[in-house]
Amino acid sequence: MQIGIVGLPFSGKSTLFQAVTKTKLDAATLSKGDPHHGIVKIPDARLEKSAEIFKPKSTVHATIDFVDVVGLKKGSTGTTQFTTSFFSAVKTNDAMIHVVRLFQDNSVPHPDKTIDPLRDVTTLDTEFIIADMAVLEPRIEKIHKQLGRAQDELLRKELPVLEKCLAWLQQERPLRNEELSKEELHVLKTYQLLSLKPMLIALNLDETQQPMLKEEVALISAEKAGLRTRVLGFFGKIDMEISALSSEEARVFMDEYGIEESALDTLIREAYALLGLQSFLTVGEDECRAWTIRVGMTAQEAAGVIHSDFYAKFIRAEVVHYDDFIAAGGSFAKAKEAGHWRLEGKSYVVADGDIMNIRHG
Q1: What's the total number of domains in the chain?
Q2: pLDDT, tens digit, for every residue of 232-242?
Q3: Cα separation of 264 and 3, whole Å?
Q4: Do 36 and 127 contact (CB within 8 A), yes or no?
Q5: In the listed set 165, 195, 225, which residue is the last one of a domain according to the structure?
């Protein structure tokens, strides 16, 4: 899973990238204008506890690839310029985090002179909507011409989906917040539409603005939150300092500032919810591992995430939920005695936190 971190110039997007990836980018690196990538292990207390029990040879966390997307520049007039390289970069992301500036810093002026988070969110949405219209309009015109010459069932199915999406875009409505069926999303997949990608709006405040956090999140949520859009707040400079500390030092630091959760933990939790993701575990003396799957996946589909052969040759899945496993003292035998261990078929819908062992041919 790849999540792009985007934002207008001087919004603090690179600060957030450094906080969540626990990396330090110097001024020379930042000035090059190259995208920055960071693979982050997803914190999972269930996996850590399982590793304590089994003492495996290896413990493998699920991961997220964060990308600090470049390409937005401050133009000669002071306003933000959206470049072709920026649009090309975000097309490859599964979702985006839009960092929006609320902090005041006279030494780093906002490109639009004033701090206005709703304006900044709308600016990016508008650019994505215009880019999507530029994709759909010629495609719709081409389909009409093709249907005038021949009968094509696939094109007849595609056309109403594209026309419906274009109508939403013309009303300045990002596609990510519209109800679309699995079949319609499948039709749209090849177009890599930018306003369709799930969006996490991250409001960047400084430590003096803590009393404003809930109010600002509520204000932007009222205007912009939707089906695949979520809003949260974070403290960029503080979170970057926290990322450099040990877990014990970080907890003391967070308690001092009244921060309940680190930026990394918050973003991962919200990103999972936004993308409809969850984790299941495989455990044992050789390896304890967390696997990321989509909510609603069956046992057979989850087996295919481990290995394609497991999907093709799936027989049964041995399943016990992590909570029941721990309640049984971390013992499969006791979980079985308590009736929590069971065999499930290929159509079983996997729950978040299931521990599974796949039986296959």
Answers
A1: 3
A2: 999 998 888 88
A3: 13
A4: no
A5: 195
